[in-house]
Specification:
Length: 153
């Protein structure tokens, strides 16, 4: 996990960053293996990778991409070979696919609620972990937590 998955998180395409962040958040907040002592060494690297994702630009789920899709109907009768390739590309677009994470609008909220629950279960452990995160990733998230009204014990 540390050698393959976590280093690749920073190079995740912008459209998939939200899903990757929510997957890592589920791993942090729901997986019992990361919460036991033997695997707790992975908790901090996974938390850092999630906070690193929060610092990268993301495609918001509510962005309207309909303007981009209007070009799919353009037909150039003189370039048949190009048209076939373009049609295949147009058919492979993710138009109309259902977002499985539509209930979770902001991954920061999901992480915050998970950290609050973990902090209530084991007081003092989560703030100690967050203090080990590099400040370039922790500071913006801690400021957002304070502004959103979350208290981690």
């Amino acid at each position: 996990m540390e050698g393959v998955l976590l280093p690749a998180v920073a190079s995740t395409p912008p459209k998939q960053r939200r899903v990757v962040a929510l997957g890592h958040i589920s791993l942090l907040t729901r997986a019992r293996t990361l919460q036991c002592e033997a695997e707790s060494r992975l908790y901090l690297p996974v938390l850092i990778s999630v906070l690193r994702l929060f610092t990268l630009p993301q495609l918001k789920p509510t962005e309207d991409t309909a303007g981009e899709n209007s070009e799919l109907n353009v037909t150039d009768l003189e370039e048949h070979g190009y048209q076939v390739g373009f049609s295949r590309l147009g058919a492979s677009e993710t138009i109309g696919k259902r977002d499985p994470f539509s209930a979770m609008v902001d991954p920061r909220d999901a992480l915050a609620s998970g950290l609050v629950k973990a902090g209530e279960a084991q007081p003092g452990k989560i703030p100690a972990l967050i203090s080990q995160v590099p400040s370039e990733f922790a500071t913006p998230y801690l400021q957002w937590l304070a502004a959103a009204g979350y208290q981690i014990k």
